[in-house]
Amino acid sequence: MDAFAAPSGLALDPAHVSLSALSPGASGTVLGVGCRSAVLSALERRLLELGFVSGEQFEIVAEARPGRDPFVVRIGTSTFALRRREAESVWVEIAPALPSP
Amino acid sequence: MSVTAAAAAPSATLRADASGLSLSLIGVPNCGKTALFNRLTGSRQKVANYPGVTVERKEGRLSGPHTGRNYRVVDLPGAYSLEPASLDEAIARDVVLGRHASEPPPDLLVCVVDATNLRLNLRLALELRRIGRPMMVALNMSDVAKQRGYRLDRAALERELGVPVIETVAIRPGGERALLEAIDRFAFRERIGRVEAPPPATAAEIEATQREVRRILRDIGYKVPPRQAILSRLDAVVLNPVAGPVLLAIVLFLMFQAVFSWAKIPQNGINAGVTAVSGWIAHAMQPGPLRSLLLDGVVAGTGSVLVFLPQIVLLFLFILTLEDSGYLPRAAFLLDRLMGKVGLSGRSFIPLLSSFACAIPGIMAARTIPSNRDRLATIMIAPLMTCSARLPVYALLIGALIPARSAGPFNLQGCVLFALYAAGVLSALLVALVLKHTVMRGESRPLLLELPEYRLPNLRNLMLGLWERARIFLERVGTIILTLMIVLWFLASFPAPPAGATGPAIQYSLAGMLGRGLGVIFAPIGFNWQISIALVPGLAAREVAVSALGTVYAMSGSSDVSGALAPVIAGTWSLATGLSLLAWYVFAPQCLSTLAVVRRETNSWRYPLIMAGYLFAMAYAGSFITYRIALALGGG
Predict the structure, then answer these.
(1) Structural domains in chain A (count)
(2) Has residue A24 been placed in a domain?
(3) CATH number, domain containing residue A82
(4) Per-residue pLDDT reduced to its tens digit, B120-129
(5) Which of B171, B489, B526, B533 is placed for a possible disulfide with B297 were both Cys, Cβ 3.0 to 4.6 Å?
(6) Per the domain annotation, does A78 fall within a domain?
(7) Number of A:B CB contacts under 8 A?
(8) What ipTM score was computed for the predicted complex, to two decimals?
């Protein structure tokens, strides 16, 4: 997981990954969008406005074939379809996998 | 509560002249804003376009139940934010700020929020509140929210926001009543003019606003029940990489099937009506120019187009239902990859699907595409989606020339029709691919598309939408098509043939001369002079070509052919000519309204000219190849 370049300011925690790397079924909590130091891109602004903000719960719902792209993310109480590239700057903490009963 | 009371208190600055107050409805896409607008204004609305540029505008009127004041209501395009990401959102922002060139600053903003998704909706309300215009919040879908077990304290929300918050139920009669009364009680002050746009928020500021939204939701006790399991299961099928595309194919196939099989009964009714009217005229009037004008021009011309009303209504019924149910954005997701191959995104799917009904709403729907490049590419290929105006032409020619026998398990006529639609789609993909590698290079831009919650379509909204489309079609029949038919009748009647002439009168008329002139151009692709004449009025509206053929043959035949054009065509045209005309209409460059809309939407002559040029070239080439191959195979 630490192969991903994390933005400055975020700890290199192995559970911290880019949303774009996840597969259907994965869920967790959003940490933030983009890097604090860099200028906010129009896409990043829109992601923030749509609710990709720190503390929000997410779940990957589906992905298209072939190429696993675009994919569908449920965040808070909304659902969005987006391409993996568009989700690259969304940093998340994945929930620990529940022990199977 | 306190806020409403304060607002209602008499004030020295109250608007003395309370007439012509304007309200703007604004909200994020899918918040039920348009349904609420329909509820507020009923049929007292008109759809227009913002002059100069883009975008459909919906305006309606309502009068206050107490004061009798008249209000102008404008339904703004859906917007997630005042920092626009599309043309649509830019217009909503400009109107709200009062800097739109042709729209007065609103006296009151009605921010419509979806009570079942306040997390997404409330941020825009906070952003709007900062602008400082008088505002109220319509808490829409409050019935669904209550039924499904959402909990929220309206009065607390009103206190938090500092503006009146009114519960509305857009889909139920009377669900707009409370809002109507609140508007009527509202103490309007002097209109606030243009407001400067706030500087773009930084990431920290947006995050702060989002934290504020979440704090408010916590404080008003907003509780969201877990998503209904059935909806998640539905998504698991609809969005499934295998089942999803299969389902999409079935839905589209059913749509085209229904358009042709269900429409038969009402179509037969209309046909019978037209025949009855022409029979009555033929008996009641003495033979002469006026009878000919009425029979051959008016009845034969408009009747042959009117008969396609049921098909157009059915097509729109499907498209509007799919739109209302929340399925279309999911289809866009499924098709994103495929459309990405030709340089488009899944977002282009919705405008292109609308173009099967008519390219004009399709081209206007392209304004929701954030990327200008994608938007232009979508506009350029929209006319290749076979619009409903081409249906009359296809239906006539297929009925006349293709035998109604079965081809394996399918109907041969149906297969030809499907092939024509497929030819349109394939050439659209081809053109998009060419555009991607020539004039419209560059990366396709973001998909980022909300998949709204599934909803049962509302019957009343569907009916209003259908009525709107049917009305537009009938107006076309009553105005432009009728006018053209009368003009064509005159061209086909005068000058009268010289004494002792043997051929049909139309051959000596202006139309006959014009047709023979154009026939030189169209002879290589197998069109006779009657078709050549019919193509000219077809410039104004494609379906007119059928009316025009009806009139031309009515004028040149020895007997009355109104209502029976198909046998005449079957008897006089070669199969190659018929197939060639079908191929022509796959590309059909002749629709002036489409070109005019493209001119307006792109604000330049460049794109409509390129479009007309490439469509004409493809139509001519397609017809030429079809005609020559058909001749070689013995279809002459």
Answers:
(1) 1
(2) yes
(3) 2.30.30.90
(4) 999 999 999 9
(5) B489
(6) yes
(7) 114
(8) 0.86
